[in-house]
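User: I'm curious what two different proteins look like when written out as structure tokens. Can you demonstrate?

Assistant: Sure. I'll show them one after the other, since each token string lines up with its own sequence. Here's the first protein:
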Amino acid sequence: MRTFLRGALVLALAATAEAMVVRPAPNFGLEGTPKASSLRSFRGQAVVLVITRSARGKDFRRQVYRLKEMYGQFATEKVVFVAAIAEGPADVPSDIPFVLAANPAQVAADYGVAGKFAIAVIGVDGNLDLITSKVIPAARVKDAIFNNYETQSAERKDLNF
């Protein structure tokens, strides 16, 4: 009887795990966007969040340069780019259209960023799929977007795991 109950519990937990968010991204407000008021407004779209002290900072400029390498692919997939800029002018020197976070200092705190730079990838399911304080290649951002929890779960179903 105990074995049966244990097995039933494992199956029930496995079924509910499919619908769970693994690591939910902290929500935050956005500035000047008529269609979207917060991160949750972009549910169903991948979001690349760049947190920086200054848009003129070396790490921020290097990261934007790397993202531009694959921006065409990101645009095709409707990836949203958000910048949380704590100091200085809020204009982003880039061809990539960035949406601005409303309270950059709070965004940095909510994401546990204590330094001057970080980049995060939030999947279409609202999961925080990647966060790092290092400048990373655009290909790594792309991998985080297209190999997220939701995609991997769907592929496992297709393979009957």
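Here's a second, unrelated protein for contrast:
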Amino acid sequence: MRTMKLLFSALFLVFLSSCAGGITVIPRSGGYPVTASYQDSWGQSTLTMKLASGETLRGNLIWIPPGGGISTVIVNSSQGSAVGHGISSGNTGMYKGTIVGDHGTTMRIELLCNTFTQRCVGAGQTSDGVLYDIQR
């Protein structure tokens, strides 16, 4: 079980090890999308964002790999007993962290990611309470 989780996480991290690109960040209160980009490395993603005020926020989000589990079933009948096992690796991981601005603003971010499609969605909230929807 642990080996399967580690293998699945390692393969996903290898896939992400050199990924970089843009992120769509939209204020919930309305307005234009915010300019943002990311650079993935082992177990984390560095996010850079420029708010409408001109402040640049930067920081690391850590990767929380998908969960999984082992299921066991025992079947008894008049013919005897049988044991069955199943393994699931899960397909939903998460990026979570806080980025910090050059003028003191912070933003807490949580992104839920589908490991098969490599797409993430979530939200961020600045220290002054502004909410943003984020798609990666």
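A detail about the second structure: The chain has a mean pLDDT of 83.
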